Amino acid sequence: MVMLELEMLYQKGAIKYAASQILSDFNQQIGLSIFQFPMAVVMSAALRLKWTREPGDRIIVANAIANNDAPLGNNLLDAQR
User: Which residues contact 67 (CB under 8 A, 6 or more apart)?
Assistant: First the structure.
C-alpha cells in the first residue's frame, strides 16, 4: 500500500522519485523490503480500525498491526474499545 501511495504522489508530481526507486534506495541503504503478508489478515485488522475513514491509512496501520510491529496501532485499537 505504501508503494501505491508513493507512486501516486510521484505521478501527480508531489515527490521527485518513483516508488520503485525509493524502495531500491532504501533497500540498499537500510535493507528495507516489502513484506508479503496475507491480505485477508491485514483486512481483518483494518476492519477493526475506526480512527480514520481513509482506506489507505487503515491498510498501512493494519499491516503493521498484523505483523505485531505497531505499538501505536495496537494502542489505537485499545483506545477504540
Answer: 35, 37
| Residue length of the chain | 81
Residue identified by cell 531500491 is 24
Residue 32 has a CB neighbour count (10 Å cut-off) of 13
User: 3-32: per-residue pLDDT in tens?
Assistant: 888 999 999 999 999 999 999 999 999 988
Does the predicted TM-score (pTM) go above 0.70? no
Per 3-state DSSP, the chain is made up of helix, strand and coil in percentages (nearest 5) of: 65, 0, 35
The x, y and z cell numbers of residue 54, run together, are: 481513509
- Non-local CB neighbours of 16 within 8 Å, separated by 6+ positions: 10
Q: d(Cα 53, Cα 59) in Å, to the nearest integer?
A: 11
Cell of 78: 485499545
